[in-house]
Amino acid sequence: MTLAEISERCHNITSSYLANSNGSAIVEATKEAIQITRQQFLQEVFTRWDPFGDRLSFSYNGGKDCQVLLILYLSCMWEYFVTNIRSSQYSSQYHQFPLQFLPTVYINQAETFGTLENSIESTRIRYFLSVYESPRNQTSMPEAFRNYLDVNSNTEAIIIGIRHTDPFGADLTCIQETDSGWPRFMRVQPLLHWKLANVWSLLLYSNEEICGLYEKGFTSIGGINSTVPNPSLSMKLELGHSTLKNEFEWEIMHAYGKKEASDEVCVSKLSASDERLLQNKGHLDYYPGWYMIDDSLERAGRSRS
Ligand code: FAD
Ligand code: MG
Ligand code: MG
Question: Where's the Phosphoadenosine phosphosulphate reductase domain (predicted)?
C-alpha cells in the first residue's frame, strides 16, 4: 500500500457509503454530514491550504473522531488529486500522487492505554502518517503545539476532530484562529456537525480496524487513570437497557469490502496489560461502545476530560 492507495480506498469507502440505499434515518443523516465535511475540505480548506503542501497538518490521538475524520480527509485528498492533478494537462510524469506521508501531530498527554498506543501505531502504518509525537506529559497542550510549530514552522493550519457536542465545542466554527494562550495557527474543524451516531455509522461501515477498547464498552478514551467503560453500557445494569440496542447492524453486516455478510467488527487486539486491568477492575461485561448513541452520555466513563 501507499498513501495514494489508502486515499483511494478511503474515497471508495465514502462513495460506497453515499451510494447505499439503506434508507435509515441515521444513514441518511450521516450522508448529509459527509457531504458537508466534503464541501468544507474541497471548497474552504484545500482552496486555502494545498493538501499536498507543508502548511496543513492533522492532529491525531487514535480516537474514533479523528479516525473517521482521517478517512474523510484522505477521501477528499484523493478527489482533489483526481480532479486537479491527474486530469490536468501536465505530462503524465506529474500525475503521481504528490505526497508519501501525511504530516500528523500526536500530543502524548497522560498515561494512555496500551491498546490505544498500539492502535495509534498500527494506524500510523496503515494511513502513512508521519507522526510528530510530543514527549509524554511534559507540558500543556498549547505548549506542546508551540514545540511542534518550532520544528514545523511552515504549518499554518491543523485539522482537529472536535464536534459541537464536545466540551467547549458548541460555538466553534470550521475554520478559526486559536484562542489567546495558544500558539497562533488556524484550527480546521470539519467534524463539528457530526453526532455520535454518524461517527459510528461511517466508521463501522468502513471496515477499517478501530481501537479494541471501543468493543469493550469504552465510548470516549482519555488517560488510563481517568477512563472506564461507559457505565450505561454495563450488562449488569438492568435499568434503562430496554433502549439499548445495536443501531448499526446494517453497517456491520454490509461493511465495505466484506465478501459475505457477517457480524464481525474489525477491532484491534487488547494489550495484555489492558486485559489484566479490565479483569482486575471487574470491567468485563459491557456492551460495545457503539451501542451508545446518546451524545450527552458519550463521556460518562470519563472522570476528567
Ligand atoms: P477528543 O475527541 O479527544 O479530541 C478531539 C480532537 O482533538 C481529536 O479528534 C484530535 O483531532 C484532537 N486531539 C485531542 N487530543 C489530542 C492529542 N493528545 N494529540 C493530538 N490531537 C489531539 N482549545 C481552546 O480552548 N482553544 C484553542 O485555541 C484550541 N486549539 C486547539 C488546537 C489543536 C490543534 C488541538 C488538537 C486542540 C485545540 N484546543 C483548543 C483544544 C480542543 O478544543 C479540545 O479541547 C481538545 O482537542 C480535546 O478534545 P476532547 O478531549 O474534548 O475530544
Ligand atoms: Mg471525541
Ligand atoms: Mg480527548
Answer: 56-229
Residues 156 and 281 in one domain: no
CA distance 6 to 14: 12
Phi-psi domain of 14 (left: phi exceeds 0; alpha: psi -120 through 50; beta: other): alpha
Average pLDDT over residues 143-168: 96
Whether ligand 1 lies within 6 angstroms of the CB of 185 is answered as: no
Q: Based on the domain organization, do 137 and 253 belong to the same domain?
A: no
Q: Which ligand is nearest to the CA of 182?
A: 1
In angstroms, what is the C-alpha Rg of the chain?
19
Cell 508521519 -> residue: 130
For the CA of 182, the closest atom of ligand 1 is 28
Q: Give the domain extent around 250.
A: 196-297
pLDDT band at 303 (very low <50, low <70, confident <90, very high): confident
Q: Are residues 34 and 171 in the same domain?
A: yes
Number of residues that make up the chain: 305
* Mean per-residue pLDDT, 189-214: 98
